[in-house]
Structures are given as C-alpha cells and as structure tokens.
C-alpha cells in the first residue's frame, strides 16, 4: 500500500476527539494544575499593568489607541503559536526560577509607588519591563531561549501602549510639530496667506491657530506607529521591511498633518476662527480615516510575494513541563498580598493625614485693564478640571499680569491631571523658550504659606516670569506645606506619607515687566495677598 494511503487510513481510523485520552482545553484539571495557575497569575499581572495605563489612555487622546493594544497583542501571540519551535534542551530552570521570584517580589514596591503617582511614566516602563520579564521567564520554562526569541516580538508589542517618557515626548513630538508648523507657514506664504509661526502655533490675521489645532497630529502619529509595528509583526516582515514601514508611516503622517494644518490656516484666514473651529474636528477625523487605511495598503504592497509563511493546520504536539501546584498558588497569593498590602498602607495613612489650609482666588477687579478670561473648551477637555478661572490685569506699576486657577476634585486621576498642567509643558508648546529655572520661593498670602516654582520664559522679545504652585488638599502630620513639583523626591515622599487620589488645585501667575527675578518675586509678594484668600 502506498505511504500516502497508509497515512490516510491511519488518520481515518483515529478518533477525532477522545475525552478520556485528551482533556478539554479549559478543563478543570488544566486550570487547577501548577502551570495553569502560573499562567492565570501572568494574565492577572498583565491586566493590572493595563489597568494602570488606562488612566493615561482616558486623559491623553494621543494614547487612546492603547485600548486595542492588548487585543492586538493577543492576536499576534495566537498567530505565532501554531508555528512554535521545538523546546530547547538543557534549560537552566534554577536561574529562571530565581529571576522569576525577584521580578515577582518587585511587584509590591511598584504598586506602592504607582498608587501615589498614577502619572509617573518611568514607573509605567519599569512595570512593563517587569511583566515582560515574568512572561519571558515563563516562556523559557516552557521552551527555552528558542521560545523566548520566537514569541518576543509579539509580546514586546504590548509596550507600545505605554506613554513615552515625558522628556522624549516633548523633544520628539514638539520638535516634529514645530517642523510641521514651519512648513505650514511656508505653504501659507506660497498660497498668499500671511502667517507667522510661534512654536507649535500659527498666527494669521484672524487670530491664532491654537495649540490643539497645531499639535493634535500627535494622535495620528502615535496611532500610525502602533499600526505599523502591528502590521510588521502580522506579516512577519524582515527587519528591513519593518524599518521601511515605520519610516513610511512617519512620512505619511507628516504629509497628512501638513495638509490638515494648511487647510485650517486657510480656513482661519479666509472664513474666520469660528468657522475654522467648526471644521477642525472634521479635518482631524478625516486625516485619521486616510492615514490608517493608507498605511495598511502600504504594508500590503510591500508584503513579499511568493514567501508566504508555512502555517501548520493544527498545533504541533507539545508536552508541557510540569510544575508543582503550590508554586502556582504561591504566585497568585503574592499578587493578592501586593494588592492588599498596598491598600492597607494607604488606608492606614489616610486616616492620619492633616487637611491643608483651603484657599481660593478673588481676582483684583479694581486693577487697571482687568479682564476675566476663559480657557478654550478644547483646552478644558484636555485638562478635565472640576473648575477653572482665568484673568488678566495691569498693576499700579504698569506690569502686565495673567493668572490661571484650576481645581481637580479628589479622584484616582486627580494628581495625574493636575501635574500634567505645568509651565515647562505648556509654554514651550505655545512657542515660548525656557530661559531660567530660578528654583522655589515661599510666600505668605493672608496666612497661607505657598511655595511656587519660579521660571522665566522668552516669548518673542517679551520676558515672562512664571510662578506655579500645585496644592494638595491633605498632607502628612510632619510634612510642611510645599510645592509638589513632580521630582523623584517629592514622589517618594508622597508614597511614604500614604497620599493618593487627593484633591488638587493649581495657581499659575505670569508677570511681564520685571527685569530681574528678585524684582518679580517682590511684585508677587505684594500682589499675592490681593488674589489668594483662605476659604
């Protein structure tokens, strides 16, 4: 009998599914086994990690694509599973076990720090690498380095959901948007539209195309980067093609957003700011609708022909290494301990926190040229503050003042939202350049000791002195009222004090006129009691 006939006969004779010989994929025995428990624990670690990132996805529109990243990552792992290589022999399971335990123990300090600092991106990345390391240890236990190398691209893709470090984001994204704004001004000149660039902003005769209009291309950029990484792995491109896809996505986004910003500048100059704002969201959505399908088409076009991957029709037989059930139970128990200990730490300390003095603002309406202003709705949508006030005026010495007062009620993202509004983030985006950081200054305002960060910015030929104070509703018993400036020391002090989810408020005062820092501080000392009053 021919060999092929023998194989067919054998396949026909074999039972399709034998419950006694082969347990169901999700049988109780598999779930309750040591490896099943460890796998569930790993899944819980990934869920906790994504839950931490969820606050950033909700607040920052450019990272809203993060919601689909876990699903896309799972698809990539699922596609690779049928093609998994055979297990590597001679694995160092003892070393793997040691690394797994060390990484697992690291979960507790991470949870403690993140709870008090839900916006600290460095901790996001540390947590991401910790969960990634745990997953690699598990893969090493299953199949050795062959499995780690094989599944690494699909699993590492999950980290695209992590927000970029703030310094990198500001340098790369703001630089890119300045480039787009500059090119927009050049195109506007070519179209006969007078326009002037101010950082990420473009000024036309009708007004200023605001920060959200000029820099919202960040969303399409980062979504395109995520999609290009996904498609590169989905099609299993070579490294050269993956780099080409990334470069192509960057060029596509630049061209698309250059077209959009030029259209908005034309709309503002030809039809006024109100009409431009009406068209703004439509233009942004249209760009997203063009960029992402175009990127998918580009990936399809550069897909190699005649080099399809040979995918097995069914998963190759594989016998999982055994692991004691107590190990799986221990891993799950430790995750529970880390969660419980974090909650106990903060609840214990929250009972001993002391309420800070409450204060509010009363604008100096009697000052010359006083004008109450409002923040744009688009800016308020980004800030998501509970209440906001803004005003400008001129003091008796003809110095120009402007001020913002923002309030966030207590909640999980209160600190995250409040710390996202800082002069070193907002002013450069509006075209100003940081000149000097003059440190902290503490002043009394009707019995309220307030600590401000003093910075100077250059905006054209104007020198602006900016005073910024972030104030929490509560503090630790031995803690002096001070500026929560987002430094590593301030963040760790918040952990030790057990402070989380507190109500926050920000006051930012800008004065134009003083030539020196000392003169600006002297003016603030005189002006502050007119504005800040205990409540």
How do the helices and strands line up, and which of them pair or pack?
Blueprint: H1 3-13, H2 28-32, H3 34-59, H4 69-80, H5 93-105, H6 107-116, H7 121-143, H8 145-156, H9 166-190, E1 196-198, E2 201-204, E3 207-209, H10 211-215, H11 217-234, H12 239-271, H13 273-301, H14 325-350, E4 354-355, E5 359-361, E6 371-373, H15 377-383, E7 387-394, E8 400-408, H16 414-419, H17 423-429, E9 433-445, E10 448-459, E11 462-472, E12 474-475, H18 488-497, E13 504-512, H19 517-531, E14 532-534
Antiparallel strand pairs: 1-2, 2-3, 4-12, 5-14, 6-7, 7-8, 8-13, 9-10, 10-11, 11-13
Helix pairs in contact: 3-7, 3-14, 4-8, 4-11, 5-7, 6-7, 6-14, 6-18, 7-8, 9-12, 11-12, 11-13, 12-13
Structure in words:
- The protein is an alpha+beta fold.
- The chain has 19 helices and 14 strands.
- The chain has helices at residues 3-13, 28-32, 34-59, 69-80, 93-105, 107-116, 121-143, 145-156, 166-190, 211-215, 217-234, 239-271, 273-301, 325-350, 377-383, 414-419, 423-429, 488-497, 517-531, and strands at 196-198, 201-204, 207-209, 354-355, 359-361, 371-373, 387-394, 400-408, 433-445, 448-459, 462-472, 474-475, 504-512, 532-534.
- Strands 6-7-8-13-11-10-9 form a seven-stranded antiparallel beta sheet. The protein has a three-stranded antiparallel beta sheet with strand order 1-2-3.
- Strand 1 (196-198) and strand 2 form a beta hairpin.
- It is flat, with a radius of gyration of 29 Å.
- The chain starts with a helix and ends with a strand.
């Amino acid at each position: 009998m021919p060999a092929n006939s023998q194989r067919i006969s054998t396949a026909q004779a074999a039972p399709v599914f034998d419950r006694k010989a082969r347990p169901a994929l999700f049988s109780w025995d598999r779930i309750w086994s040591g490896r099943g428990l460890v796998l569930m624990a790993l899944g819980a670690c990934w869920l906790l990690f994504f839950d931490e990132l969820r606050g950033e996805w909700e607040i920052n529109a450019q990272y809203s694509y993060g919601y689909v990243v876990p699903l896309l990552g799972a698809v990539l792992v699922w596609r690779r599973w049928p093609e998994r290589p055979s297990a590597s022999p001679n694995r160092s399971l003892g070393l793997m076990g040691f690394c797994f335990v060390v990484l697992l123990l690291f979960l507790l300090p991470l949870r403690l720090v993140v709870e008090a600092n839900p916006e600290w991106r460095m901790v996001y990345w540390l947590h991401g690498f910790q969960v990634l390391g745990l997953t690699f240890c598990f893969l090493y236990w299953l199949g050795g380095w062959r499995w780690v190398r094989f599944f690494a691209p699909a699993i590492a893709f999950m980290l695209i959901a992590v927000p970029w470090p703030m310094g990198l984001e500001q340098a790369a994204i703001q630089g890119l948007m300045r480039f787009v704004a500059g090119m927009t001004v050049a195109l506007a000149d070519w179209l006969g539209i007078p326009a002037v660039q101010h950082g990420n902003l473009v000024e036309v005769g009708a007004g200023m195309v605001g920060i959200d209009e000029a820099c919202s291309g960040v969303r399409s950029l980062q979504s395109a980067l995520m999609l290009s990484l996904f498609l590169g792995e989905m099609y299993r491109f070579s490294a050269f093609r993956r780099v080409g896809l990334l470069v192509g996505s960057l060029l596509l986004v630049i061209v698309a957003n250059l077209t959009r910003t030029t259209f908005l500048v034309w709309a503002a100059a030809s039809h006024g700011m109100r009409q431009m704002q009406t068209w703004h969201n439509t233009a942004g959505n249209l760009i997203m609708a063009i960029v992402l399908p175009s990127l998918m088409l580009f990936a399809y076009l550069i897909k190699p022909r005649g080099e399809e991957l040979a995918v097995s029709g069914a998963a190759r037989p594989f016998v999982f290494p055994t692991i004691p059930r107590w190990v799986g139970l221990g891993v799950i128990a430790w995750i529970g301990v880390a969660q419980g200990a974090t909650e106990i730490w903060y609840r214990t300390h929250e009972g001993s926190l002391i309420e800070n003095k409450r204060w509010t603002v009363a604008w100096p309406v009697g000052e010359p040229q006083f004008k109450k202003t409002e923040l744009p709705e688009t800016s308020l949508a980004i800030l998501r503050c509970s209440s906001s006030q803004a005003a400008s005026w001129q003091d008796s010495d003809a110095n120009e003042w402007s001020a913002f007062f923002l309030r966030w009620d207590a909640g999980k993202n209160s600190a995250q939202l409040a710390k996202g509004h800082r002069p070193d983030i907002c002013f450069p985006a509006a075209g100003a350049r940081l000149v000097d950081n003059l440190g902290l200054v503490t002043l009394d305002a009707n019995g309220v000791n307030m600590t401000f960060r003093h910075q100077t910015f250059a905006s054209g030929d104007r020198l602006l002195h900016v005073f910024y104070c972030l104030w929490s509703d509560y503090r630790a018993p031995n803690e002096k009222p001070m500026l929560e400036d987002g430094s590593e020391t301030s963040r760790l002090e918040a952990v030790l004090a057990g402070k989380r989810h507190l109500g926050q408020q920000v006051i930012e005062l800008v004065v134009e006129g003083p030539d020196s820092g000392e003169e600006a501080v002297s003016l603030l000392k005189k002006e502050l009691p007119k504005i800040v009053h205990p409540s």
